[in-house]
């Protein structure tokens, strides 16, 4: 197959039924974090702990999307996207995580969904994009056995409320992301650490993923149900056996931990003792059955590959990342390696699982140090990033992989978790003081690209 010239690709090369979307998440954009009956989320409380978020930024106002959603949906349309992926804030619907329903919260998402439909934009709704109700964290959060009942209740409320209007659902956003960063490394909310916390959070999350799918299937007619996974090609630093095995362990955690149980394969172990013990504990027939669900599509989210080296000093996983910067590789403002071939490779890796009806890229994008100048942001690097990644995606698609669509991360600069407002990923520039939006050159590039 001839190489694809990245400057020449057109959206129409992907076929007329290919889905083009742009994504956001409630806690990153909505603001109104302590208003209109919303309960606190773990990000509202975690961000107030000293030193947890860069420069002490808080998600309280974020992009004020709660008040500007109409204009923001208009931006989605203006940029040429047909799909808008957003998430529902659990504590806005259920301020205590369970029980009492917040009518204002219910109404807000009705209005948002109606606005999308009115503007001809198809909503893709994520049920959990990391903003757990703080009240549930007080009971142990994802480490508590009771979380599954609470989550199922939340899913059922949303499915019943919005199921007539919303057909496309994503149960969880990046389960490995929030269980590892939030319950093992402690750098994301709720800031817990250690293997015991991590593994119990993993198991309850894997149950939630499949239970959520089943509830949507039962409640929503003609639902298109997916869930999304973070994934990264794992590249061993050298061909030494120690590096190969270290890479295998990281791959087991980062790429396989949640998709394999969902596909009915049980937890992966990669011949690794820690994982074998965990898997044995949870591999009764009842467990395996409950962890399985026939998703209609699998969302994959890719930002970077990881180069991994054996390191005996790192507990348990004994693996260490050799950073892009230290290898003199191109990288974004987050230090994440820019490597479109690795995007292609990880799509292929996921496509080798049998029984995945469709793959969908539910997030991909890059942060740069954008500067607003005379109402313009010339983010040429971001355009180049998208051009290269989309060329890699087209290559995978032309080779016959069943990829249904692509969603760019993200509509506008927003609250980037522990990075606060310092990392800008948007196609639209957000002035966080005035809430003024400015379409960046990359947004204009998408507008043009999606027109051809
Ligand atoms: C998350 C987003 C986040 C993005 C960039 C993904 O892991 O789903 O919420 O903003 O990566 O870090």
TrEMBL record:
<keyword id="KW-0624">Polysaccharide degradation</keyword>
<protein>
    <recommendedName>
        <fullName>Beta-glucosidase</fullName>
        <ecNumber>3.2.1.21</ecNumber>
    </recommendedName>
</protein>
<keyword id="KW-0326">Glycosidase</keyword>
<keyword id="KW-0136">Cellulose degradation</keyword>
<feature type="binding site">
    <location>
        <position position="303"/>
    </location>
    <ligand>
        <name>substrate</name>
    </ligand>
</feature>
<feature type="active site" description="Nucleophile">
    <location>
        <position position="363"/>
    </location>
</feature>
<feature type="binding site">
    <location>
        <position position="129"/>
    </location>
    <ligand>
        <name>substrate</name>
    </ligand>
</feature>
<comment type="similarity">
    <text>Belongs to the glycosyl hydrolase 1 family.</text>
</comment>
<feature type="binding site">
    <location>
        <begin position="416"/>
        <end position="417"/>
    </location>
    <ligand>
        <name>substrate</name>
    </ligand>
</feature>
<feature type="binding site">
    <location>
        <position position="173"/>
    </location>
    <ligand>
        <name>substrate</name>
    </ligand>
</feature>
<feature type="active site" description="Proton donor">
    <location>
        <position position="174"/>
    </location>
</feature>
<dbReference type="InterPro" id="IPR017736">
    <property type="entry name" value="Glyco_hydro_1_beta-glucosidase"/>
</dbReference>
<dbReference type="InterPro" id="IPR017853">
    <property type="entry name" value="GH"/>
</dbReference>
<dbReference type="Pfam" id="PF00232">
    <property type="entry name" value="Glyco_hydro_1"/>
</dbReference>
<keyword id="KW-0119">Carbohydrate metabolism</keyword>
<dbReference type="GO" id="GO:0005829">
    <property type="term" value="C:cytosol"/>
</dbReference>
<dbReference type="InterPro" id="IPR001360">
    <property type="entry name" value="Glyco_hydro_1"/>
</dbReference>
<dbReference type="GO" id="GO:0008422">
    <property type="term" value="F:beta-glucosidase activity"/>
</dbReference>
<feature type="binding site">
    <location>
        <position position="28"/>
    </location>
    <ligand>
        <name>substrate</name>
    </ligand>
</feature>
<dbReference type="GO" id="GO:0030245">
    <property type="term" value="P:cellulose catabolic process"/>
</dbReference>
<feature type="binding site">
    <location>
        <position position="409"/>
    </location>
    <ligand>
        <name>substrate</name>
    </ligand>
</feature>
<keyword id="KW-0378">Hydrolase</keyword>
